[in-house]
Write a structure and sequence with these properties.
The protein is α+β, with helices and mostly antiparallel strands. The protein is built from 3 helices and 12 strands.
Length: 213
C-alpha cells in the first residue's frame, strides 16, 4: 500500500532539507592574491579587496555563511596555521555590499583571533565605516579574546572595513575571524498590513466585549 506524507509532514521535511543544504554549504577558500584580482560573492555578499600591508599573496582568506537563530551569519577568516603571522604589523582593507533586492541589512559585527598561548602581545583592531568613511563601530581583540557582537547602526547595506593586526615579540597569529550578522527590515507595505491587522484585532475584541456586556 502506498503511503503519502500529510501536507504538514511534507512541509517539515522540505524545511529540514533546505536548512541542511544551507548549513552544509562549503566555504569559499581564496587567497590574498586571488582576492586582489577578483571580487568574491558569497550568498548575498560581495567582498571587494582594497589594499593590505605585509600580507603575502599566498595567505588564505576563507569566506563562510551559516544560519543561526533565524539570522544569516557571514564570516571572513584571514590566514591559517600553515601561514601564521609572526612579529610585525599587518593591515587589511576591504568592503562588503549586500546585493539582494530587497536586501537585508548589517546588524552586528564581532572580531576574534587564534593566537599562540593567548599572549597579550597580539592586538587585532577593526574599524567599520560607511561609504563616507564615517566610523560606525570599532572592535579590538587582545590576546585572542573575542570582541562583540556590537551593533552596526543605520540599517546599512554597505560597509568599509579596515583591520590592523599587531604582533609583538614571541606572538603568533594563526587566524583572525570577522563575523557579520544581518537582519531583515520589514518593508513599509508589510508594516502597514500588520498595523491594519492589529487594528482589526483591537476592534474585534472591543466588539466581543460589547456583545457580552
Amino acid at each position: 500500500m502506498t503511503k503519502y506524507l500529510k501536507p504538514t509532514a511534507f512541509l517539515g521535511v522540505l524545511i529540514s532539507g533546505l536548512l541542511l543544504v544551507a548549513q552544509s554549504q562549503a566555504a569559499i577558500v581564496s587567497s590574498i592574491g586571488e582576492w586582489k584580482n577578483a571580487t568574491v560573492t558569497d550568498q548575498d555578499k560581495l567582498y571587494t579587496y582594497k589594499d593590505s600591508t605585509n600580507l603575502t599573496d599566498n595567505i588564505p582568506v576563507t569566506f563562510n555563511f551559516f544560519p543561526e537563530g533565524g539570522l544569516d551569519v557571514h564570516t571572513v577568516t584571514l590566514t591559517d596555521g600553515a601561514h601564521a603571522l609572526e612579529e610585525g604589523t599587518y593591515t587589511l582593507h576591504y568592503t562588503i555590499d549586500i546585493i539582494n533586492a530587497p536586501p537585508p541589512v548589517f546588524w552586528q559585527a564581532s572580531l576574534g583571533a587564534d593566537v599562540t598561548g593567548q599572549l597579550d602581545v597580539v592586538t587585532v583592531f577593526k574599524e567599520i565605516t560607511d561609504e563616507n568613511l564615517t566610523t560606525l563601530v570599532t572592535l579590538t581583540s587582545v590576546a585572542g579574546k573575542k570582541d562583540g557582537p556590537k551593533l552596526i547602526p543605520g540599517d546599512r547595506i554597505f560597509i568599509d572595513v579596515f583591520e590592523r593586526i599587531t604582533v609583538g615579540a614571541g606572538g603568533v597569529v594563526f587566524s583572525t575571524t570577522d563575523t557579520y550578522t544581518e537582519r531583515v527590515v520589514p518593508e513599509p507595505a508589510s508594516i502597514a498590513i500588520w498595523a491594519v491587522l492589529a487594528g482589526l484585532g483591537v476592534g474585534l475584541a472591543w466588539w466581543r466585549r460589547r456583545r457580552t456586556s
